[in-house]
């Protein structure tokens, strides 16, 4: 299976044919705790109702509101699932910020990415660490070549041969993605050994991994200061390159498990080992079928 962007037809077919069964597998600590918002990113900016409002490439919508509306449903038919499958046709809001009906525009209506709000201000017992292969690749490039003060990240990676190594053209190598998963399980081990909890989960994110700690016991409560402290330990003492704002920002959104990372045609997947074969095991059926028919 080649490392490539999914077509809009493949994205649409994934959400129509495969997502329902995937949706039911979303981890309980996400479903049961009711994130307030779902975020949708489009491949290109999508028009909205108001003439004075610019098209939007990213929208956030309330996931739970008036109990009389279908959109309040997290499980079962309708609601959030329908919004994810076809956002413009199922936009729960009205007014000038609402997405234009798909019948009126010639723009892809499928989501490039699906996110949910971590809601740390309400669920301060949830911690998330984001490890991106592109950041691992930058660490590799800094060690591999002599960096000049004015050199950009891409300059360093180019000189280190990152863009020429498989998957060619991406800002990381497969080795960097493998290392990101290794780091993810190091973070999981840290959570379990130093914070004394087994309520942890590593999720392959498409181009890296997310590591969750989600213990609701009263002793697990994290304001911004302890979050920053944990991030500093991971970065400075364990030398793991993380995206710090994902851990510390109270209003962050993060990729929804079992949604499609359309940039690489891979399903965001909870995993049990750094040996997870993302090259084959995370490929949606629609992309496998397309590859087989060529």
| Largest beta sheet: strand ordering | 2-1-3-7
Secondary-structure-based class equals alpha+beta
How would you classify the quaternary structure? Answer: single chain
- Which regions are unreliable across 5 or more consecutive residues at pLDDT < 50? 65-72
> Which shape, going by the Cα principal axes?
globular
* Overall domain count: 2
With helices defined by DSSP (H or I, 4 residues minimum), what is the helix count?
A: 9
Order of helices and strands: HHEEHEEHHHEEHHEEEEH
Query: Rg, please?
Result: 20 Å
Largest sheet geometry: 4 strands, antiparallel
Task: Write structural notes for this entry.
The chain is α+β, with helices and mostly antiparallel strands and 294 residues long. The chain has helices spanning 8-23, 28-31, 80-85, 133-144, 153-159, 174-194, 224-237, 244-248, 285-293; strands at 37-46, 56-62, 113-117, 126-132, 200-204, 208-214, 253-255, 260-261, 266-267, 269-271. The strands form three sheets. The protein has a four-stranded antiparallel β-sheet with strand order 2-1-3-7, with no helix packed on it. Strands 4-6-5-10 form a four-stranded antiparallel β-sheet. Strands 8-9 form a two-stranded antiparallel sheet. A hairpin with a 3-residue loop joins strand 5 and strand 6 (208-214). Helix 4 crosses helix 5 (153-159) and helix 4 crosses helix 6. The chain is globular and about 55 Å long.
